[in-house]
Amino acid sequence: MGAINTHFVPALDGVAYGLLLFVAAAGLTLLFGIGGVLNIAHGTLFALGGYLAASVSDGSWSSAFLGLAVATVGGTLCGGLLAAGTLPLADRGHLPQALLTFGLSLVGADVLTTVYGTDEHPVVIPKSVNGTVQIFGHVYPTYRLMFIVVASVLALVGTYVLGRTRAGALLRAAADDREMVGAMGYAPWRVHAALCGAAGALAGLAGGLGAPIIGPGPDTADKVLMLSMVVIVLGRPGSVLGAFGAAIAVGEIETLGVSISSNWAPYLLFGLMAVALVVRTFRGSSAVGAGAAAGAHA
């Protein structure tokens, strides 16, 4: 019982941090798993959303909603620029995309540093959520609890849109057969642009929502990108549910894991990623071998 009390707050922090990583990584995993675009500048879009939300925050609810709107629009516009840059590289593999978006991330980081400086920017949140609440005898920040609720709703909405709507079906179809989507009357470049815009919007929104938790600063983009990549590796690219489960696992390792064993937590995170890569490689090899054997018997 004492251990539960000791680790309750870190465990709840892990849920909040994991949901933040989910919202941040959702756009990246959709863009990579469905659109086939490897966006190394994704962390920069997250940082941009955080900076924009922080720059308009004054402690009122109107400024909080304005900050989220500005962050989302800013991410969407950058996603449109990303679509224009990556469309000519759609059939050239991931290396040209990685080089292009890596260059864009360097330029974006320099621009953000020039505009906002090298210090972290505090976010002034409304007073009604800028306090603490009692949960099972533990004190917990109100904003983080509210964030858990909001991010959970976003996860449900994202799962519904991708799995149950016509727009989601179109995106999945574009990933499997671009020519078929074109034959249905949908220009593939428009689907590509919509996917990049949606991924950018998610990154910007995540940056705005997460700014009070991960204050926007010079290291924010790199940290978010690294952890988002881990989420993609642990989860299945293109799967919202896979990204959700992986993000919660990463969040718990980063908080509860550190609380239990600060020395081993970092090794556990990247150890899990290595195991996931090995298992997928083995399964891929087994599938290829089974296919070759079936062809030989035929």
From TrEMBL:
Topology class, membrane: Multi-pass membrane protein
Which Pfam families does this one have? BPD_transp_2
Please state where this protein is localized: Cell membrane
Q: Which UniProt key words apply to this protein?
A: Amino-acid transport, Cell membrane, Membrane, Transmembrane, Transmembrane helix, Transport
UniProt superkingdom: Bacteria
The membrane spanning regions, by residue number, are 15-41, 61-87, 99-118, 143-162, 193-214, 226-251, 263-282
List the InterPro entries: ABC_transp_permease (IPR001851), BCAA_transport_permease (IPR052157)
Q: Does the keyword Membrane apply?
A: yes
Family to which this protein belongs: Belongs to the binding-protein-dependent transport system permease family. LivHM subfamily.
Q: What is this protein called?
A: Branched-chain amino acid ABC transporter permease
Gene source species:
Catenulispora pinistramenti
